[in-house]
Write a structure and sequence with these properties.
Blueprint (H helix, E strand, L loop, with lengths): L1 E4 L4 H11 L5 E4 L15 H16 L3 E10 L23 H12 L6 E11 L8 E11 L15 E3 L4 E2 L5 H7 L1 H16 L6
Parallel strand pairs: 1-2, 1-3
Antiparallel strand pairs: 3-4, 4-5, 5-6, 6-7
Helix pairs in contact: 1-5, 4-5
Length: 203
């Protein structure tokens, strides 16, 4: 089965491709099939993910799965949330992973509360008007490390410290990260939803 991943993020494609491989599903990044990106005007992960999934399904004619994920920092009232990818830009930095981490470390300096959560919401649709989208949410509680540690992963991984493992996500092997991460948890749930609702032969 071929499913469009409504993202052009290489890190997400790699992680999700590995997680869906047991079902024999080929995830195709939307950039190989269409130009442009869906509007993301909403304030919640699920609404933006649904918008992206419907956009990709409409323009490719294939089932689509979209991910909207972000960092929710307790000291910032749950922000940056859906604006996580653009976090650094509000402080005059370019939009990229390194500067996002830099801005986060700088903004957290005055705060003693370094608790946060990473949230991943996956939404799948069989076609643009699908009235029953599949929705899977993965959440992991972390603390923001005071400095970068590790060289694996992407995004905020170098400062997402897992208390139970005493390591950041960037210090973990890929298989361990997938077991603990927000995206790994959401993908495991979505994989079972796809198996049950889209692949009856796998029941």
């Amino acid at each position: 089965m071929r499913i469009v991943l409504a993202s052009n993020n290489a890190g997400k494609l790699h992680e999700l491709g590995a997680l869906f491989q047991p079902l024999g599903i080929e995830l195709i990044p939307q950039g190989q099939l269409l130009q442009g990106e869906a509007p993301e005007p909403f304030h919640t992960f699920v609404e933006n993910a649904l918008s992206k999934a419907r956009f990709a399904a409409k323009h490719t004619g294939l089932p689509s799965i979209a991910d909207d994920a972000g960092l929710c920092v307790d000291a910032f009232g749950g922000l940056p949330g859906v604006q996580t990818a653009f976090y650094a830009t509000q402080f005059g930095y370019p939009k990229d992973d390194w500067h996002n981490v830099q801005a986060l470390l700088e903004q957290l300096k005055p705060h003693s509360n370094r608790h946060a959560s990473m949230v991943s919401t996956l939404v799948g649709v069989r076609h643009p008007q699908d009235p029953q989208p599949l929705i899977a949410v993965g959440r992991v509680q972390v603390q923001i490390a005071p400095e970068r540690k590790g060289d694996k992963g992407f995004g905020f991984d170098p400062v997402l410290w897992l208390p139970e493992l005493q390591k950041t996500f960037a210090e973990l092997p890929e298989d361990v990260k997938n077991r603990y991460s927000h995206r790994g948890r959401a993908a495991a749930t979505m994989r079972e939803l796809v198996r049950e609702h889209w692949l009856p032969s796998h029941r």
